[in-house]
Specification:
By secondary structure, this protein is of the alpha/beta class. About 35% of the residues lie in helices and about 25% in strands. The chain is built from 12 helices and 15 strands. The radius of gyration is 20 Å and the shape is globular. It binds nicotinamide-adenine-dinucleotide (NAD).
């Protein structure tokens, strides 16, 4: 590992729920030297809870004018990802951005183009596929053959949780799937490859405070031929957040069944030529491993050019699927072809 003086210097944008939680992972391989959040309360809470007396700024340009940084980590609300990433790229800073990459595909391409022109790296944090229990299902395709179908129900009761108000607005989040489903869609892409066609139907609205449908049924048709169904509802009394979303997977040579609980995860899998299922229990939900892998790879990508576990591509394609599903739901389930914006694709 590089000596302290050689460590990359990061600025952290967004000091709400996730930013301070993510910061220690960055500090394991780099050094967060400044922070930025427009909320004075968030900046004060940051110093109080972390004990880190870092220079803290209200606006990004103040930070960039005052502190020399190599890279930024963006852990602010989704609607701020594009402007912050573009501003950082224009100052020549590498960009690590949390999911969802942005509100829509044109915003994602703007981020990509800004980083390309500046010659800086751009990675989007999609931890789900990197968490060992979920990565295990990706690896099990070796034994079970290619995926034919996946079924995931993300039915849970959001009323148990105290989410910030911006999560309720489509124009600030990007819609329901950016709130619940974004991780599943990225993992489905890791299992099945690129999506060819998307259709979605919205259920009747249960809570008018959300500016987007709070129940959605999404069908994905992959180029591989695989089909996936993702159903999401924020209005389901029987399950909490961490208990929902366990996939059932049909493969050419067998199947997998994944059951999430709040404190552990159960995975069952079996080949068609076997009489009993294999059972694997994961007591470690695997978040630490995934966050470490993301930041280690991002730093190595910058320092050594080594191919990372994720780039911006996963982030952009995930936003594309979500945008297509939200648009299809407004068109009564019309099947939409991807890419959604062929005119913006790289030439
Ligand atoms: N990968 C994961 O596991 C994971 C988990 C949680 C959240 N996230 C992502 O992290 C992001 C933040 O989520 P959260 O739950 O912490 O939200 P939050 O509302 O708790 O915190 C967001 C913070 O960003 C600040 N902010 C607003 N505009 C800003 C700007 N222009 N520049 C800097 N800061 C700004 C807010 O004042 C607030 O303090 C979201 O994109 C979310 O999807 C990822």
């Amino acid at each position: 590992m590089a000596m302290s003086k050689d460590k990359l210097r990061f600025a952290l944008f967004g000091l709400g729920d996730f930013g301070p939680y993510f910061l220690p992972y960055l500090n394991e391989v780099a050094e967060v030297v400044a922070v930025c959040d427009p909320s004075a309360a968030a900046r004060a809470r940051f110093v109080k809870t972390t004990g880190l007396p870092l220079p803290a700024f209200e606006r990004p340009e103040q930070l960039f004018d005052s502190v020399d940084v190599d890279a930024v980590a963006i852990t602010s609300p989704n609607f701020t990802h594009k402007p912050l990433a573009v501003a950082a790229a224009q100052r020549g800073k590498h960009v690590f951005c949390e999911k969802a990459m942005a509100l829509n595909v044109p915003e994602c391409w703007e981020m990509v183009r800004a980083c390309e022109s500046a010659g800086v790296r751009l990675m989007v944090g999609h931890k789900r596929r990197l968490r060992p229990p979920w990565a295990r299902m990706i690896a099990l395709r070796e034994q079970l053959g290619p995926v034919l179908a996946i079924n995931v129900a993300r039915y849970w009761n959001i009323h148990h949780y105290n989410f910030p108000a911006w999560w309720e607005r489509e124009e600030l989040t990007g819609g329901l799937l950016a709130v619940s489903g974004v991780h599943t869609i990225d993992w489905m892409r890791a299992m099945c490859g690129d999506v060819a066609l998307v259709s979605a139907l919205a259920g009747p609205q249960t809570d008018p405070k959300y500016s987007y449908p709070d129940t959605l049924h999404v069908a994905l048709h992959f180029h591989s031929g695989a089909l996936a169904s993702l159903t999401v509802s924020l209005h389901y009394p029987l399950l909490h957040f961490r208990e929902s979303g366990g996939p059932q997977v049909v493969c050419r040579e067998g199947g997998m069944r994944f059951l999430p609980y709040k404190d552990h995860l159960d995975l069952y899998w079996q080949r068609m030529d076997e009489t009993e299922a294999h059972y694997e229990r994961f007591d470690d939900l695997g978040h630490d491993h995934a966050y470490r892998l993301e930041v280690v790879d991002f730093v190595r990508w910058i320092n050594d050019g080594r191919e990372p576990c994720l780039t911006w591509r996963e982030g952009l394609r995930c936003v594309e699927v979500m945008e297509a599903a939200h648009r299809s739901a407004q068109q009564n389930g019309a099947w939409l072809n991807l890419p959604l914006y062929p005119e913006l694709e790289a030439t």
